[in-house]
What does this fold into?
Amino acid sequence: MNQRWPFILAAGLLAGSVLLAACGGGGGDGTGTASTGDASAVSPAVPDPTTGGADAEAATPTEQVIADLLDEVEAGDAAGAMTLVCEGSEEMVRTAVDDLARERPDLLVEAFALDEFGVVTADVTGSAGGEPVAVTVGAAEVSTGPCVAALFVTW
It folds into this structure.
C-alpha cells in the first residue's frame, strides 16, 4: 500500500472539516479540534446499518485500533492513545487526543465505514467535560499494522 495514504486521508478529512466549518458546522483551527460555540449544533452520527448499530463492535484489526485509541482517551491516557497513531500523523492528531483525554470523555462508536482505499472511519458521539462531542477517526492497515491516521473533534 502506498505510504502516502495517511497524508491523503488527512487531507480528505481536513477538507471535510473545512467544508463543515464553511457551512456553519464548526470552526477548524488546523489542530484537529473544532468548536461550534453552540453544542446544540452538533449533529449526531447516523449509524450505517451495514457496519453496526448504535454501539458498533470492532470486527477488523483496523476497527479495533480505533476502539483501542478511544479506550485510552476515555481513560485519560493521551500517551497510550498516541502509541496507536500512524508514524507521520502524530502532530496532526496530538492536540485532539490531548484535549479529549484531559476531559475523560464518554464516547460511543455509532458506525464504522470502509472506503475503496481500505481506510476505516468511525463516527463517534458522546460527551466530554459535560458537553456533547462528535468525533471522526480514520485508520488503515499499513506495513507495520493498523494505526490511526486522523482524529477530528467537534465540541
